[in-house]
Design a protein that fits this description.
- The complex is a heterodimer.
- By secondary structure, chain A is an alpha/beta fold.
- Chain A has a domain of about 140 residues: Rossmann fold (3-Layer(aba) Sandwich).
- Chain A is built from six helices and seven strands; from the N terminus they run H-E-H-E-H-E-H-E-H-E-E-E-H.
- Chain A has a seven-stranded mixed sheet, with helices on both faces.
- In chain A, helix 5 links the parallel strand 4 and strand 5.
- In chain A, helix 2 runs parallel beside helix 3 and helix 2 packs across helix 6.
- Helix content of chain B is about 10%, strand content about 30%.
- Chain B has a single domain, classed as Beta-grasp domain (Ubiquitin-like (UB roll)), CATH 3.10.20.30.
- Chain B has a five-stranded mixed sheet with strand order 2-1-5-3-4, covered by helices on one side.
- In chain B, strand 1 and strand 2 form a beta hairpin.
- The chains are: A alpha/beta, B alpha+beta.
Chain lengths: ~200, ~70
């Protein structure tokens, strides 16, 4: 018996996604919004990792609320995700991800969503993941800052690495919910597409 | 001939490394990720990873923000 939440899913999608485990590395602007989209689609299990606590300045783009300020992001996000789909399985890791531990933390994930802030961390995560699990996809975000220019945001893929964003804009241009959430939703969309085995890929 | 980002083409030379391709393209980004025929090449390998003739390279800029 599948949940009525997923009554609008396309045929075969609910059963496939319920079996899926997706990792989310970072639960900020990208990770929190991507996780919401993944749970709404029916992903059965998420591994969420972030050591930070919610700050007021996060609320401009991250899926948190005033009452979450001061809470661990993974715990606050878990509450929001379970408020959408109570049966979703969530592995919460309130730890600092490093090149030494990231592959182990996400060992059960079929796909990893890279949702870090810093470009240096994006790179070591890509390298760690590809070295540990060469057959598994990683969905990276790069270029989501500033305003507008929606048409410059795209998915570019090379092998198992998929990049979402404009590939240019840097956080020095500011971070705004609309543009960050587009890229986060795009990352979730790519992950769902890969899990469903899109014949176009 | 090498193809870069499905768009640019440069002449291949025997012994060409990933670093040679990046220099030829004149990239100035501080942080990039490079694949050769879909396989990730880590930064430590740029100077000695040979690029075969006909290869397709992708060079992705990694920008701060999340």
């Amino acid at each position: 018996m599948t949940s009525p939440i997923f009554a609008r899913n396309v045929p075969g999608m609910t059963e496939r996604l319920a079996r899926a485990a997706v990792g989310v590395a970072g639960c900020g602007g990208l990770g929190s919004n991507a996780a919401v989209a993944l749970v709404r689609a029916g992903i059965g299990r998420l591994i969420l990792a972030d050591a930070d606590r919610v700050e007021a300045s996060n609320l401009n783009r991250q899926h948190f609320f005033q009452r979450d300020i001061g809470r661990l992001k993974v715990e606050a996000l878990a509450d929001h995700l379970q408020a959408i789909h109570p049966a979703v399985a969530l592995d919460l890791r309130a730890i600092e991800l490093t090149p030494a531990n990231a592959a182990e933390v996400f060992g059960d994930a079929e796909i990893l969503i890279e949702a870090f802030d810093r470009a240096e961390a994006k790179r070591w995560l890509i390298e760690s993941w590809c070295r540990a699990y060469p057959g598994r996809p990683i969905v990276v975000a790069s270029g989501l800052a500033g305003l507008g220019r929606t048409a410059s945001i795209a998915v570019r893929s090379a092998g198992r690495i998929h990049f979402c964003g404009d590939g240019e804009s840097d956080m020095s241009a500011g971070l705004c919910a609309a543009r960050v959430a587009i890229v986060a939703a795009m990352q979730a969309n790519v992950a769902i597409e890969l899990l469903m085995g899109d014949p176009m890929r | 001939m090498l193809t870069i980002n499905d768009r640019d083409r440069i002449e291949w030379r025997p012994g060409m490394t990933v670093r040679d391709v990046l220099d030829a393209m004149g990239y100035t980004y501080a942080l990039i990720t490079v694949t050769v025929d879909g396989e990730l090449v880590e930064e430590d390998d740029y100077d000695h990873r040979a690029v075969p003739d006909g290869a397709a390279l992708n060079v992705f800029h990694l920008a701060h923000g999340g």
